[in-house]
Specification:
Elements (H helix, E strand, L loop, with lengths): L8 H17 L11 E3 L2 E3 L3 E3 L12 H5 L4 E6 L12 E4 L4 E4 L8 H9 L8 E5 L10 H12 L5 E5 L14 H11 L7 E5 L5 H14 L3 E4 L18 E4 L3 H17 L7 E5 L5 H10 L3 E4 L1 H6 L3 H8 L6
Parallel strand pairs: 3-13, 4-7, 7-8, 8-9, 9-10, 10-12, 12-13
Antiparallel strand pairs: 1-2, 5-6, 6-11
The chain binds flavin mononucleotide (FMN).
Flavin mononucleotide binds next to strand 6, strand 11 and helix 9.
Amino acid sequence: MKFWLYLPANISHKLSAFGIKLYSFFCTKKKLKYNSLTWKNLNFFNPLGIAGGVDKNAELLKQWPKLGCGFIEVGTVTPLPQKPNSGKIIDRNNKELSLWNCMGFPNKGLCHLQKQLKKHKQYPIPILINIGKNRETDLKNAYTDYIKCMDQLQNYADIFVINISSPNTENLRDLFLKDNLKIFLQNCLQNKIKPTLLKISPDLSQTELEHVLNVSCIVGVDGWVISNTTKSLNPELNFPLNKGGISGQALEEKSKLQLRHSIEHLKKINKRENKLIISVGGINSADKIKERLSIGADLVQVYSALVFQGPSFFKKIYKNIKKPLL
Ligand SMILES: Cc1cc2nc3c(=O)[nH]c(=O)nc-3n(C[C@H](O)[C@H](O)[C@H](O)COP(=O)(O)O)c2cc1C
């Protein structure tokens, strides 16, 4: 077990940026090329990136390409800076390789993110920016927060990711409801300049998922990130039961099933082509990456695997990805 896993989750979380900086200091710059992809003129020299929430404020931009990421997603950013939810916000189950979090988009806000991104002209890998709404913005006006983020960050994003799937901002997931989704997305995308993906909740039923995909296609969403953390909290994991979301191994099957359903449905309605699908949830090895790609994902992301395996994860994958599936 890695030494930081003996520390309480909130302490190791606070130390993680320092650990990544230290580790990457000793890395030589080398592109880890495998399963390359070009989509809308963006080159992904490998399909593995960091998920939303890992580098919320884009504070490790120098480090990610050195570690071997094929792309990054920064944020979730909201127009105004905001603090985390009160009380416990993160927990870890080392045996089940799973995390629980109830963060609620803590971030330094749009202006700070813009400053960070401005420092890096010609970033070597594609940058996705994950955008959200401030806690105080009501649902009816939520789209205005998303538009603010897109307007101000359009010169720095290769792709935007609309996040309405976090379980940790009150009522946010209501934007997926039938009466809300179409008008919300239409409002967000009225002046779309950059390709825009929608990050999906793993807790949607199959019918709800199909509806979300249909509406996304109608309004011009360019793809999906499948999926965010799950609210179906398993008592055996010993996490707080009444709030938060679960990631890591405990999310794997749900996220995989949702990827499968999404691909099947998109093929059925003839909308798979030209759309970008990023699979995330419980991926922690080269075999699992290969599995998601074989189901039909274009790219994959990780969060929990970095927590449990540390920053050498990308190199380990590179070493193992060419081996036949176990
Ligand atoms: C501590 C923590 C914070 C997260 N913050 C965000 C976030 O700000 N925005 C977002 O879209 N997803 C966020 N996520 C969800 C991840 O991006 C990802 O969808 C989820 O963790 C599943 O991937 P994993 O099993 O590899 O961790 C967060 C996850 C964790 C564990």
